[in-house]
Design brief:
It contains 10 helices and no strands. This is chitinase.
Length: 230
């Protein structure tokens, strides 16, 4: 049976949508890989006294993930799964298994030489959120990109779960996404998030991230690839 002109136009339109949005193969959203049940299984291991127990929610994670254009949906099916695994691995390490929302050892983290994103009086820019957003310039840039006052109100990253996850994905998409999609390996994400660990001072921390990454890759049924360490 042949196709009429209207059917051909519709078919071509569908093909173009698939090509432009990378939706024709693999997951078209991280939701297809990380279900509510799977996320809840991660949170079930979080101690009752942990501040992250009720703060980090599936809704906050998945909504922020889907707002981060191309996260877990770009490249091959293997790279898509690796990216989700890599994000979760780094987040689990940074937060002690989603236990902490704010950094334990809090410092000001004010780069006074940065005049574009000057520190606000009395504000501290220690790590907050899934990837522990740190430094005044990161708070300033994230706030500008996401629509909140990061310099004058950094605490919102540890108070609003949605903003908290969105800052993590903002940092990820600007610093880690390409490393995974270009198949440079998990180690490149460690360098981007905490390069100090890559100088041989914190091998335990590096191994922790890699262990989490291998775990999520196993769960998602994908080979972790090469260059896992930084």
């Amino acid at each position: 049976m042949g196709f009429n002109m209207a059917q051909r136009v519709a078919a071509m339109a569908l093909i173009m949508v698939c090509l432009n949005a990378n939706h024709c193969m693999g997951q078209s959203t991280p939701r297809a890989l990380v279900s509510q049940e799977y996320f809840n299984s991660l949170m079930s291991a979080v101690g009752a006294r942990c501040e992250g127990k009720s703060f980090y929610t599936y809704d906050g994670f998945i909504r922020a993930a889907e707002l981060a254009t191309s996260f877990g949906t770009a490249g091959s099916d293997v790279l898509r799964k690796r990216e989700v695994a890599a994000f979760l691995a780094n987040a689990m390490h940074e937060t002690g298994g989603f236990c902490y929302v704010s950094e334990i050892r809090k410092s000001d983290y004010c780069d006074s030489t940065n005049t574009q994103w000057p520190c606000a009086a009395g504000k501290r820019y220690f790590g907050r959120g899934p990837l522990q957003l740190t430094w005044n310039y990161n708070y300033g840039k994230a706030g500008q990109a996401l629509g909140f006052d990061g310099l004058n109100n950094p605490d919102i990253v540890s108070q609003d779960p949605m903003i908290s996850f969105r800052t993590a994905f903002w940092f990820w998409m600007n610093n880690c996404h390409d490393a995974i999609i270009q198949d440079r390996g998990f180690g490149a994400t460690i360098r981007a998030i905490n390069g100090g660990e890559c100088k041989g001072r914190k091998p335990t921390a590096v191994n922790s991230r890699i262990s989490y990454y291998r775990r999520f890759c196993r769960d998602f049924g994908v080979d972790p690839g090469l260059n896992l360490s930084c």
